[in-house]
Each structure stands twice: as C-alpha cells, then as structure tokens.
Design brief:
binds thymidine-5'-diphosphate, alpha/beta, 13 helices, 7-stranded parallel sheet, binds nicotinamide-adenine-dinucleotide, 3-stranded mixed sheet, Rossmann fold, 337 residues
Length: 337
Amino acid sequence: MEKLLVTGGAGFIGSNFVRYMLEKYPDYSITVLDKLTYAGNLANLADIEEKYGPQGRYNFVKGDIADPVAVKEAMAGARYALNFAAESHVDRSIEEPGQFILTDVYGTYILLEEARQVGVERFLQVSTDEIYGHVPDGSSVETDKVEPRSPYSASKAGGELIAHAYFITYGLPVVITRGSNNYGPYQYPEKLIPLFITNALEDKPLPVYGDGQQIRDWIHVLDHCSGIDTALHKGQPGEAYNVGGGNERTNMFITQTVLELLGKPDNLITYVKDRAGHDRRYSLDTTKLRALGWAPQKDLATGLRETVEWYLNNRQWWQALKAGEFKEFYERQYTKR
Ligand code: NAD
Ligand code: TYD
C-alpha cells in the first residue's frame, strides 16, 4: 500500500479526487487532513468511509494545515502529499482576507516544511488559473506572468510561489497544477453554478454580478481530478501545469442554461452590483498537460445536465448546507447588494 496525504479532502474537489483515486488505484491508501471549515463536509466522504474505511485504505484526520503537529502526524509515511486545502471563495476573500493568507499561504508553508522532513516523492500544490489575473485576449501559458488581483488569487499565488521556492532551494519535488473553474457534484452552494441551480429550485433570484458577460473556462471536476493525477505521476518536479476544460462561456450563458435545464423562467435573473476587482476573463492553454497524455472527457452540455440532476437528486445535501452558516453569508453578501 502506498500512502497519499490529501489535505482539504472534505471539500468539493478534494472529495471527488479521493473517490477517483481510491477507485483507480487499488494499491493506494489515502489519509485526508481537513479542518472542516464551513466548506468541509464529512457527508462528501460518507460513501468513501463506508467502502474503503474498513479496508484500511481511507482514513480521516481533523486538523489544520497550519498546525505543524497535526501535519506531522497526518503526513508520516506518505509517499505523495497533495494540497487541496484552502479558503476558496473570492467573495469571502474580499470580506475577510486574513484567513486566506493563514491557510493558503502560511498553511502551505507548514505542509512544505513537513514534506521536506518526510522526504515525500511528490508534493502537488493545487493552484488556480486565477493567479494569472484577468486575461483580455489569448490564453495563459504556464510561463506567463503571475498577476493575481483578488485576495484569494493573491494568496493562492503566494502558496504556489513558496512551493516553487522549496523546489529550487531544497530540491523538494513540487508539482503545481492550475485548474480553471470547476463544476460538478458536492460543490458548496456559494459558487456560481450550485448557487444558481439551488436558488432556481427554490424559485429565488439568481444574482448576476455586473453585466454577466464575464468569461470563465469551465471544467468538470472529474476532468480536473484526472489532470491532477496525470501531473502527479507524469509531471516534472518544479513545473506548473494548466488544467482547463476549454469551455469558455459567459456567466449569462451558464445562467440561461441552468434555467433552461430546470424549466425555470428568465425573470429569476437579477442583476446586482459587480464584485470589486472582478476579473473579466480567464482562459487556459493546456498544451503542456495534454503532452503528458491528458485530455478532458466531459463536454459541458452533458456535464451541466448531469450536475443539475445531481442537485435535484441530492436536495438533502444542499438544503442542510443552505440552512446553516450559508444563510448568514448570503444575507451579508446579497441582501443589500
Ligand atoms: P472547498 O472550499 O470546497 O474545500 C476546501 C476544503 O479545505 C474544505 O474541506 C475545508 O474544510 C478545507 N480547509 C480549509 N482550510 C483548511 C485548513 N486551514 N486546514 C485544513 N483544511 C482546510 O474548495 P474546492 O473548490 O474543493 O477547492 C479545492 C482546491 O482547489 C483549493 O486549493 C482551490 O484553491 C483549488 N481550485 C479550486 C477551483 C474551483 O473551481 N473550485 C479551481 C481551481 C483550483
Ligand atoms: P465563482 O463561482 O465565485 O468562481 P470564481 O470567482 O472563482 O471564478 O464565480 C464565477 C463567476 O460567476 C464569476 O465571474 C462571478 C460570477 N458570479 C455571479 O455573477 N453571481 C454570483 O452570485 C456568484 C457566486 C458568482
């Protein structure tokens, strides 16, 4: 059995990744280290606990990546460490940047330091296309300038720059992935697609920021997971890899598709004040990762249809979240917007 440490494994992408890897690699065991913030949810891992827990292939540790004691315990004996743990929502980073710096920057440093002591074979830092900043034309390649513009993207950029410094300075075999906007099952309903699906199901307004013509490059979460898997096993230490779906769409296109799939009226669309410093467009060139044999499999129309079905079939999952901490966040963010 080879041990992987997956931090942030109780979140959206992390939980999908844990399921993907345990199914694909029968000789891997995974330890999840997760603080269980508002975005961490053991329900995301319930099927995994049931299936792989008794076999000793899955193990959950509650803890903070910024806590060296918790990290030391969780990382012991790991061959690979993958850092998904982060504060991940741009709007929350505008409200309260401090926790982003503590987790996404300082927490990453604590993990890197322990990875160096353990001597892991790979340290994979899950980063984002947002570190490139707004892309007026063309597509970002990995050698482009890092120009983050939100507290979230700046803290993610900080985390990956420190990771890269550990490669240069200490020879830690760090690989960085830069994913584009993910969608799919288990995404916390603060993000665009699950927020709009669940609001539409509740016949609530869909708050479109600004003119709704901002562009994101959407990738299905399982295509992101396979990209991370490829970078982990085939990527070169010290290198970054873009993981984009090649589905550039305006927010208005996504909004209208969600409404059509649910048979809900256009008058649910409500234009609200734009996000401060809103990046208008992201776009990734994925030639470098494709050269390692990766390609996304899910077309956007199918992926969005399946995602809408998932939220329809898992009402209890998201209704419990929307009744909790989310309620206060929503009131703060949206009621007087
Ligand atoms: P998420 O918010 O759904 O999950 C984050 C997880 O990290 C949660 O389980 C949370 O409890 C945990 N966590 C937060 N702070 C922690 C800490 N200090 N210690 C331990 N655990 C902590 O986020 P996500 O959308 O699944 O994103 C996962 C990673 O992928 C993040 O690093 C994010 O920056 C990156 N990413 C996300 C997207 C996207 O579209 N969602 C795109 C590219 C990259
Ligand atoms: P989001 O899901 O927050 O991801 P990110 O900001 O990391 O790209 O937002 C995706 C896009 O949707 C972004 O351009 C902001 C926009 N958006 C809205 O218009 N309304 C909303 O309520 C939310 C959450 C996002």
